[in-house]
Amino acid sequence: MSIQLGIVILYVCILVGISMYVRKRTLNSVGFLFAGRGLTTPMVAANITATAVGAASTIGVAENAFTHGISAGLYNVAWAAGAIVMAFLAAGKYRKMECTTIPEFFERFYDKKGRIIAVLGMITVQLVITSLQYIAGGAILSSLLPQFFTFEQGMIVSAIVFIGTTLIGGLWFSGISNILSVTLIYIGVCISTFTIIQKQGGWDQLVLSLPAGVAWFDPIAPLGLATVIGWFVVMITQTLTAQGPVQIACAAADEKTAKRGFLWGAVMMFPIGFLCAIMGMAARVAHPALNATLALPNMIMGLEPIVAGVTLAALWAADIGTCSHILLAAGTLFSQDIYKRFINPRITDHQYTIINRWAVLLLGLGTLWMAFNASGIVKTMLIGLSLTTAFTIVFLGTIFLPGLCRKNTAFYTTAAGIITLICWQFIPATHVVAHPIYLEWIVCSITFVLVALIDSQRIKHAS
Question: 283, 317, 322: which is closest to 193 by C-alpha?
Answer without folding.
Answer: 283
